[in-house]
Sequence to fold (625 residues):
Amino acid sequence: MTRVFLEGSEALAAAAIAAGCRFFAGYPMTPFTGLLDHMAEMLPEAGGVVVNAESELEAVGMAWGALATGARAATGSTGQGLSLMQESLSEISRAELPLVVFNLARGQSDYYQATRGGGHGDYRHIVLAPIDIHEAVAHTQLAFHLADRWRNPVLIYGDYLLAHTYESVDISPVDFPELPPKDWAVDGSLGGTGRSRNLNPIGMTKGSKGIEPQSFLDRLNLKCEAMAREEMRFESEFCEDAELLVVAFGTLAKFVRFVVRQMREEGLRVGYARPISLWPFPSDDLRAAAAGVREVAVLEMNAGQMIDDVRLAILGDAPVTAIGGISMDEAGFGIGPLLDPDTIRCRVEGLLRGKEKVA
Amino acid sequence: MSGSKSDLTILSTQAPPSEPATHLGGPHPALLLDGDHDLCPGCGEPVAIRLLLEVIEELGCGQSSIATVGIGCYTAFTSIIDLDLVQALHGRAPSVATGIKRMRPESLVFTLQGDGDMVNEGLQEVLHTAARGENVTCVLLNNGVFGETGGHMTATTVLGQRTKNSLEGRDAAYHGHPILIGDMLASLDGTAYAARGTVADAAGVSRTRRMLKKAFQAQLNGEGFSFVEILTMCPTGWFIETARGPGYLSEVMGSVHVAGELKTGR
Fold:
């Protein structure tokens, strides 16, 4: 194992290349720009191609084409750019192409966009929200594997903090179980044989005219249900005898985990829970972690988005209270006052003590 | 413009094709799985697609071509075109073709798009792909209407042309001007070859075949972006008698989108 001290953006680029990514297209936007910069610098050396796309619409379209040839390909942006990509993300899901897409977001307000299938129609993609650069490196490599395994897009949800802080990380390629060959990929070779391929997002197939949307969409939905069962990821600490359980995701969760550990050392009965996969949301694990708590607190840097999934998971077992909120810096990049242990502790403790008084 | 002066009988916009389909028989191109298609009688698109597939066969590229197809009436052909194929979103085929070509530079990569697809929804895609000098070929089937939705105005609809949403004819003051996409693409430095053909008559078909061949050869030689626009009949979308389609194409559309080579070599 060799550790290197890298900025998050560079670590993500290195991890993608280690995972075999050979095509990347993007359009600059803070804080995603750094990843594009590093890919442009590093991927050609690894034998890959980076295209400085003229818009996010084109970036995702180019990745679509590269994926169709069987190459590992990725794109990304910041939430606003992801909005532009939604039509293609939806159709790429239906064309069953293994796209990896990075949202290096301006804070946490793209939770709905990431987890609901921001485009048209019934589809979902796996969403991984790393807590730090070390986990982001692991998630990036995992994302390429999961995308290929399910033939479905996987989204990495990061932010400014992830992109622009430094950590010492190990970028060695990770071994994953072997995947079936991509015999669906287009290489032109089956032209004129009567068995040519049709990578199609609307259910059209070669040889049979028209479409059968019912059976096509049913099959994709069954796949989504299988992903939902198998790809839930979750971590928690100190839940057994907790009175208050604090739920957070992404880089903000690192601050929450720190605060909860600190409070535990002082004997306060607080627990910590983090959905690592935002979709599928680890509802069963979260509900089990919350069993016996008096209240569940949700700390997220937005007007309240993940709290919906927390409430659906808890199913009324305990009251669920928002203790986060919009938290912005002057530039609007999502580095707000909530990214501060003392501020977080103040909110957690306020809720804990408030309840003690009532009890 | 000539369209407004046309003496053609304009049928009701709800009318079906004025003549039933005629089965011409004969062998279909080897790269087509079936000789039948689902498009309207008098449609020019099947003729253009036939040319496209025959040229690919002639060039010996049947086992090395990858098609990227947009959304329009011609999309019905994706189930019977016997080439490896990627279905793109409306307007977005040039970017998809870019990704394919960058990963498989040895393949013959082309898009098949209509005017609504390429010139309305995806104009920036084709312009940037050309400007980048991307070594792909974009093929446009231009009939000046959204045929699939029932004959609505597109960005290539000529002045005076009657469509579902320009019922009294396209009026520059109200609807704006048509885009001559072939000329626009020919003006870009990344474009190696650009031409506008037509399937209105036998001579046009023959010339269009040569244009397609030159465009693909430019790609095979690595010269950069190549483009062939093919004017096609859409009597259903034009609300005219089926048999008048070729005449209308030459007279109304062809007088504005003038057929011929637009650029040969960078």
About this structure: The interface with chain A takes residues 30-31, 33, 38, 57, 61-66, 68, 75-76, 78-89, 92, 94-104, 107-108, 124-125, 128 of chain B (CB under 8 Å). The first helix of chain B runs from residue 2 to 5. The two ends of chain B are 32 Å apart (CA to CA).
